[in-house]
Amino acid sequence: MLIAAASTVVVGALVWAFVINTEGWAKVQAFFLDPAIALASLPKIWDGFLLNLEVLAISVVTVGVVALLIATFRTLRGPVFFPLRVIAAAYTDLFRGMPFIIVLYIVGIGIPTITNTRIPPIVLGVIAVTLTYSSYVAEVMRAGIEAVHPSQRLAARALGLGYVQTLVRIVLPQAIRKITPPLMNDFVAMQKDVGLVSILGAVDAVRAAQIAASQTYNFTPYIVAGVLFVLLAIPTIRLTDWYSARLRDREQMGSIV
Amino acid sequence: MSAVLTASELWKTFGEKEVLRGISLELATHEVVALIGPSGSGKSTLLRCLNLLEPIDDGRILLGEEDISDPRVKPDAVRARFGVVFQHYNLFPHLSVLDNVTLASRVVHGVARATAEERGTRLLERIGLADKAREHPDRLSGGQQQRAAIVRAIATDPEVLLLDEITSALDPELVGEVLDLVRELAADGATILMATHEMAFARDVAHRVLFLDGGVVVEEGPAAELFAAPREARTREFLARMS
């Protein structure tokens, strides 16, 4: 504990001394870390950030619902469901493969153009995020569903539970415990990707920073927006670490979770 | 005694492999019948076909008077009338022991939670696991888990209890407690069809024994007779190997 603290102080001091003595540090400070500009740009960036949060909050729900649907389709057995399985597989292939920014362009600029209507950027953003992220999350969910041993389904069906009852009461609760860490990782990735809705013309944190930067000829607003996203992500990241560690501990104790 | 379960000429193939080749059997109320035979003789498949966990290719199954092999029959409703205990217990690891026991009552049979839990607790008391009711199954020993699984199977008062080699996965010293429970259920008048490798137990508890080999019933008869004086050469060979 003491050694760790001492070593941290020494390394920190070395890095600090090295950085502030580097030629050009003053320039970096002036262009990236201007406190006055940071303070001045914060209110607008914060307003924009609330829009990002809004897109994020809605998307969490839509992604969850669509992903669960797709994952269920992919795990259905029997020849009757072949078309559903194919559609679900094609969906995940397509949107996992396609760069998010292309999905954004197609949805955000394509849809308003062909329908010739004004659709709020927040709606378009949610659609784009949902298309891309539901494909990732669906695959994680599918892996979780398939990781539940078939004997569990068998036991539930033997008791007379139907397909849906078995899924809801036996398979999903066990699958969710297994997939929570990877799902939270996807959530972290989504938290920053909602910053890309700026290219739809929405004045979110990134766009607000861009405006402020071009007005002041200074990059500090970008740093401000970046820090907001990092602060948003940290609790989730810590929570993921904590939960993963807890799962590991429980498994070592011999529990099946 | 009236027949609870009547199977006639059951056929089942997995791909190329014919697992059941025209098996017939009858199970009367309060009767305990043991299925014995080498691994792969079709015992487990037969049990799964009887409660429609596996569809049969041909044949007829009557539960009471009702033809449950009729494709119009709802399999979920049929399965709810059976109790099944598996070799590997298959308790639900995310539910407490009590929730495992009461799940079917609550979800399938629509019994109120309080009523189901009262009965579940009584059953767990009877097998000495009342103090484990709120624990998850992984805190129990193998023998305790299997006894909890048996209680889960009987909690809904099934018409027939199907036991699929329920002691095969247990450490030898835990087999006794599980067999004792089955013996008790038999004494209480449960109707039981069990696939088993415990010959001494089958001889002791079963009224009748069916010897299966290669997907057919090679020989059947009262337990005492079949074990004491098997008629078929294949039965004699099998019993000699098992003892």
Compact overview of the structure:
The complex is a heterodimer of chains A (257) and B (243). By secondary structure, chain A is mainly alpha-helical.
| Number of separate strands of chain B | 10
What is the molecular shape of chain B? globular
Report the structural category of chain A. mainly alpha
- Work out the helicity level of chain A: over 70%
CATH topology of the largest domain in chain B: Rossmann fold
| End-to-end Cα distance of chain A | 32 Å
CATH homology superfamily of chain A? MetI-like
The largest β sheet of chain A comes out as:
none
As a percent range, the share of helical residues of chain B equals: 25-40%
CATH architecture of the largest domain in chain B: 3-Layer(aba) Sandwich
- According to DSSP, the number of beta strands of chain A is 0
Which CATH top level class of the largest domain in chain B fits?
Alpha Beta
- DSSP helical segment count of chain A: 10
- Give the CATH level 1 class of chain A: Mainly Alpha
Question: Would you kindly provide a written description of the structure presented here, covering whatever features stand out?
Answer:
The complex is a heterodimer of chains A (257) and B (243). Chain A has 257 residues and is an all-alpha fold. Chain A has a single domain, classed as Orthogonal Bundle (MetI-like fold). Chain A has helices spanning 2-21, 25-32, 35-75, 82-97, 100-115, 121-147, 150-158, 163-193, 205-216, 220-252. The longest helix of chain A has 41 residues, at 35-75. The two termini of chain A are 32 Å apart. The model of chain A has no long low-confidence stretch (mean pLDDT 89). In chain B, 37% of the residues lie in helices and 26% in strands. Chain B is built from nine helices and ten strands. Chain B has helices at 43-50, 75-79, 97-107, 113-126, 142-154, 172-187, 199-205, 223-228, 233-242; strands spanning 3-14, 17-28, 32-36, 58-63, 66-67, 82-85, 160-164, 192-195, 208-213, 216-222. In chain B, strands 6-7-8-3-9-10 form a six-stranded mixed β-sheet, with helices on both faces. A four-stranded antiparallel β-sheet of chain B has the order 2-1-4-5, covered by helices on one side. In chain B, strand 9 (208-213) and strand 10 form a beta hairpin. The longest helix of chain B has 16 residues, at 172-187. The mean pLDDT of chain B is 93. Classes of the chains: A mainly alpha (257), B alpha/beta (243). The interface between A and B is medium-sized, with 21 and 26 residues.
